Amino acid sequence: MKPLEIVMFNxxxxxxxxxxxxxxxxxxxxxxxxxxEVKRIIAVDFLPFTFRRALRNFWENFIIPLNKLxxxxxxxxxxxxxxxxxxxxxxxxxxxxxxxxSFFSHxxxxxKLNKILEKINRVTEQPSNPAGGDARQGRRAxxxxxxYFPMFIEYFGRITADLTVFDAVDNWIEHPSYVRYKNxxxxxxxxxxxxxxxxxxxxxxxxxxxxxxxxxxxxYWVANGVEPEHFAETPPLxxxxxxxxxxxxxxxxxxxxxxxxxxxxxxxxxxxxxxxSFVLIGPLWPVFLRKLRRPAIxxxxxxxxxxxxxxxxxxxxxxxxxxxxxDVAIIPHKLDKFIKYTYSLKVLExxxxxxxxxxxxxxxxxxxxxxxxxxxDYQDFSHKIDLALTNDxxxxxxxxxxxxxxxxxRLKIEEITKVVSAKLNTSKL
Length: 429
Description:
Elements: E1 4-9, H1 14-19, H2 24-33, E2 38-44, H3 51-63, H4 67-70, E3 73-77, E4 81-86, E5 93-99, H5 106-124, H6 136-139, E6 142-147, E7 163-168, H7 182-195, E8 198-201, H8 204-212, E9 219-221, H9 228-232, E10 250-254, H10 263-272, E11 277-281, H11 286-292, H12 297-303, E12 308-312, H13 319-323, E13 328-331, H14 337-340, H15 345-353, E14 357-359, E15 373-374, H16 378-391, H17 394-404, H18 409-426
């Protein structure tokens, strides 16, 4: 197989990953960067489609770039776009493409990206024929356009690709933050279903979603994974970390505080369990705050309870240490249409730490029901927290940790690359 060049349209910005935001997109990007067949990845930062997001991207990537990016080699730069080559993420060459042009014109994004791709290939694909002549065409890497971002589909037919891959992380049509873009997303998903060579999905229900759009072949459910070794470690917490002074038992959640969190459920739990501490670790989703206003009315509801603690964002490197301070880990998600199309990373991370878990009915992880407590309503959730506290054993902890080893991200990446390789081998390149 020829070496692979992957142009990846991300659902996050690289600067967000550097701050500790870790999602399926990050894990697969990072895993592919370790693969020997992957020569380079051009990672396209989240393409802003609102003025607020464009302003944020401009500030983060052009005004105060993080050290890893500022130390990279600038391949291209103008007033609205930058491409930087960085190192330290595996054996592949890594380029980070950041722009705010998508706010003005998707075609401008395509034009600049094509210009940068041509420049990168012109510099790196040098002729190897000592007798002269151009050997570049024979040595050209196989290009895969790989997208996590359903708001942008202009790469079809406009960026030369040997293969197009779409990895569906949730169903954005049902995401509360994208309600105003529902019509656009419905149209984009139809085009993605028609034109993508391969579709991967985070949830089994998304396979059915694409079938409803007429997509029958080359659609694969590959569930989220976890890094068992990462969660086997317990890095030391700062001596002055607030969590060390919180009264036990600690009932904890770690993840982004956004619309999917059932604030009313958390209120109920705090009221019914005054002797338990409820700890929420994670950033507040910007759209969640903007929607609630004055400021964050529902968050203010939680702050009135003395046994609810909002600790804010913590780095991914420290995640295992925080989870292991929990006596019970919870996933208090709303039961709505959006949840149907998700697959919780949190369940896997909690299992990898061995802690008991209580969750609202999750999507896709029912096979772990013998190791987790699934609550059917508010009262049942409170009851199952008590069960989790009283019925936990060393043997159950061991079983949780052993079970999740089968969900290793490396196995998921291997599964994905086998599908891609098979498709490339049957295609006429």
